[in-house]
Amino acid sequence: MSPILSVKDATKRYSTPEGGTITALDGVSLDVQQNEFVTLLGPSGCGKTTLLRTISGFEDLEGGSIEIDGTPVTHLPPHRRPVNTVFQRYALFPHLTIARNVAYSLEVAGLKRAEIGSRVGEMLELVGLGGFGDRKINQLSGGQQQRVALARSLVARPKILLLDEPLSALDKNLRQKMQQELKTLQEEVGIAFVFVTHDQEEALTMSDRVAVLSDGKIQQFGTPEELYRRPRNEFVARFLGAGNLLGATVSERKEAGAIAILESGQVAHLPSTDAARGERIKLLIRPEDVRMDSTRDAGALRFEGTVKQVLFVGTDYIVHVESDDGVELKATLRPRAEDRGGVTAPGARITLFVQHEALHPVTSAKVA
Ligand code: ATP
Question: Ligand 1 center to residue 88 CA distance, Å?
Fold first, then answer.
């Protein structure tokens, strides 16, 4: 199936008031499939909004090209591109009713009243605001306003919906609720969503695929699980969730994997790596892969140490441990009731285990 959106080698620079230039996009290529929920994720200033604005046509590209549904749109103005954008500030018309807000673009396009009425009604049902059409915008909650903004953007039936941090103004509970609603809505309308956020949890929960950006480049583009389990480099590993990164040196290559010696002296068997003999690498261990249960983990890496800090996060404890050979480990543990005293008391002695399969080698080099 051909992609609904194809960005090739997109480059964009801005001049700074000091007379310098900033490269906001540095050769970005990205394909989005029909019906896909893709998130652009990265720290402030990495180029996410710029990429979104070049897709919508609010910014021109300096180099590269953009195709939507097989048609080149690189030089088309925003109103001639089959996309719509939902912004962080929804910019609804406060003096108009919900229905008129949603109908606005169809009225401008000159559609017949009956057609407008049925499409607006259908859209309001879809976002859970059926029967609210006559209310004024200022009589709505933040979440309801967000839904009006979504309905307004979808009513014109764009091929792609672009969303620029649309949930960041909402409080945490409402935000989580809206994340689920947005995902359901996307599945129902069946069009591609390109969503911008700097919140990694939001990206992992909602997306089919996530593009992690840094310095105007895509560091990795993949499913949430790929990015979390098999990050390509240290930047992606650190950006997506908590992790332990342990220094090691490859001592021997095997057919697929390798043997590496940790700085603390332990011997690690890496299931897969491209690293060469003698190469210095970092091994990513996610906190939930660190265990207290030795019986299941015969042959696993073993760390004896002291509990430094304990954070109780509801069901689990996040336990910081310093091993006797100097390794700092963060572990997400769910100790049995009889073991809790030992785990949850700073200063307690503890033994932790990590299976070799849970070790993921990463390079420190970013995509250049
Ligand atoms: P944030 O999460 O803070 O919105 P972002 O990842 O969306 O960040 P962009 O807004 O795309 O980042 O900006 C990328 C880079 O380009 C930044 O260094 C920014 O300062 C710069 N930039 C963006 N717009 C302009 C502009 N109109 N003029 C000059 N520099 C700009």
Answer: 15
